[in-house]
Design brief:
10% strand; 9 strands; 9-stranded mixed beta sheet; 43% helix
Length: 505
């Protein structure tokens, strides 16, 4: 036995030269599907969302399916004769093998019983071919030393995102499961004071109008420079993550994480923002800092300050944060600083529209609210009077589909900035901010008045402090009284030179 083993010749395993070259395909299944479509008039409605001409690997089958698709779109019957005539009309009958091939396809199929199963397999084969083509293109470009690697990464990310979006199908559901979910939400709301069904904002009147930020909603928070929209977003993050301890992700495209946290410390500890910059704190302020910094420890607030964040990077990071940190709400400062690199657009407006649509899709996918800050264009500055300065939906910059994609649009507006100190009813507007709910798919629109403490980069319920005391229950943010709101501002800020550029806004 040993002798036989020693004298045996070693042979190499055969090399499969087709590996990596033979595209994923199922030609027999393609024939079965096409045959079934010609023997059952209802079969096309079952597979129309799964299949299109490019799904078929065989060029002849692509042309035949195109003919079947055209007949159905024109509400014409589909059978051997009509398909043959449609191919003849399109001038492709002879190239697919003539009438004989059509007869051959239909004669080998008895029924369409398994057509959906077969169609899903063909769809998977097509997706695999797309991925192979995508990977091959990226590999070729990666070998090209004239191609910038960073640009290539953005292109790869963009193309893969488009590929996943095109192939992401969500089927219908029977109403029972949806009714159960709706009842569960309703029961939870009934158990909460005030009927809260979403993530609480921390602002009493705003929560009354919205019932909190709702799952799967895209909320746009917009305003002109120096209105304090970043301060408002940060105050929301503080209310949600620090006070209510609800996991929150904050994507800051404009400021670094240290700048953002400095503002947060100013907000929580009631220390003026300029002193957070120069460090000239009084003994009382140092004491206040030591006393209140503990509220920030362990807060489930996750900050990402990646500049020029793309919608594709956001999607990846957001999925990970939801999965690993159980994040319940995402905030983005701000939408116009994002990009959709790797995809081609005719204009910046088209790109912003793609970004807003993708944000809405992400909110639905993750089933959490996404709050995105947005700029307003300069038309506000050219209008006169109290109502003239009031923001409108048409003022959204590079709007495109922002208004259409958003479930809610809020404007941060401080009339005092424009030297308007009273509203039409004679109410004092010094130190006050209007949160204007301009669009609300699930509820009413209207205004909410908040105190604005610019020196602390904070919005708060009128007449209340957001410093949380040890005896306050979780989630409560208003205990001690501050001085009258008008004391905070003796005069409006000068006109801004850039969006939210001051250390306070």
């Amino acid at each position: 036995m040993a002798e036989t083993t020693n004298t045996r010749k070693r042979t190499s395993a055969p090399i499969d030269n087709t590996y990596g070259h033979l595209q994923p395909q199922a030609l027999d299944m393609e024939r079965v599907v096409l045959g079934a479509l010609m023997v059952d008039k209802d079969a096309f409605s079952i597979v129309s969302e799964l299949l299109h001409p490019d799904t078929f690997y065989e060029p002849r089958h692509q042309k035949i399916y195109q003919a079947i698709q055209t007949l159905n779109m024109n509400e014409n019957p589909v059978d051997i004769i009509t398909v043959t005539e449609e191919l003849r009309r399109e001038g492709t009958l002879e190239s697919i093998g003539g009438p004989a091939y059509i007869v051959e396809l239909s004669s080998n199929v008895a029924s369409s019983a398994n057509i959906e199963y077969h169609a899903r397999i063909l769809s998977q084969k097509f997706l695999a071919r797309q991925l192979i083509s995508f990977a091959s293109t990226i590999e070729t470009k990666a070998f090209d030393e004239t191609v910038d690697v960073n640009d290539l990464m953005q292109e790869a990310e963009g193309n893969l995102f488009e590929l996943s979006q095109r192939n992401m199908k969500k089927d219908y559901v029977q109403i029972d499961s949806v009714v159960s979910k709706a009842m569960e939400i309703l029961q939870k709301a009934s158990a909460n004071a005030g009927g809260m069904t979403g993530v609480p904002t921390g602002y009493t009147k705003l929560d009354e109008k919205t019932s909190g930020w709702q799952a799967s909603d895209l909320v746009i928070i917009a305003g002109r420079p120096a209105m304090g929209k970043t301060a408002f977003a940060l105050s929301l993050a503080k209310n949600i993550a620090v006070d209510a301890r609800i996991p929150t992700a904050f994507f800051s495209l404009e400021m670094s994480n240290v700048q953002l946290v400095n503002r947060l410390i100013s907000n929580v500890c009631e220390i003026p923002g300029n002193k957070m910059l120069n460090g000239q704190l009084s003994p009382d302020e140092w004491s206040k800092l030591d006393k209140n910094m503990g509220t920030l420890n362990g807060a489930p607030l996750y900050i990402d300050d990646t500049p020029g964040l793309s919608i594709f990077e956001l999607r990846t990071k957001a999925r990970r944060l939801v999965k690993e940190k159980d994040v319940k709400i995402i905030m983005i400062d701000y939408l116009q600083l994002m990009n959709a690199n790797g995809m081609k657009f005719g204009s910046r407006q088209e790109e912003v529209s793609k970004i807003s649509g993708s944000l809405k899709g992400l909110a639905k996918e993750l089933d959490i609210p996404i709050l995105a800050l947005s700029q307003l264009n300069r038309t506000v500055e050219n209008r006169e009077g109290l109502e003239g300065k009031r923001p409108q939906l048409s003022d959204l910059r590079e709007s495109g589909s922002i208004e259409q994609d958003a479930d809610m649009v809020l404007f941060v507006h401080r009339p005092e900035y424009y030297h308007i100190f009273e509203d039409e009813k004679g109410n004092n507007l010094r130190g006050m901010a209007q949160i204007i709910i301009a669009k609300h798919r699930k509820g009413a629109t209207g205004d909410v008045l908040l105190d604005f403490k610019g020196e602390f980069t904070r919005f708060q319920n009128p007449g209340s402090s957001s410093v949380k005391h040890n005896d306050a229950p979780d989630g409560m943010v208003y205990n001690s009284k501050l001085n009258d709101a008008s004391d905070a501002f003796d005069a409006p800020f000068p006109p801004p030179s850039a969006d939210d550029g001051s250390p306070f806004l």
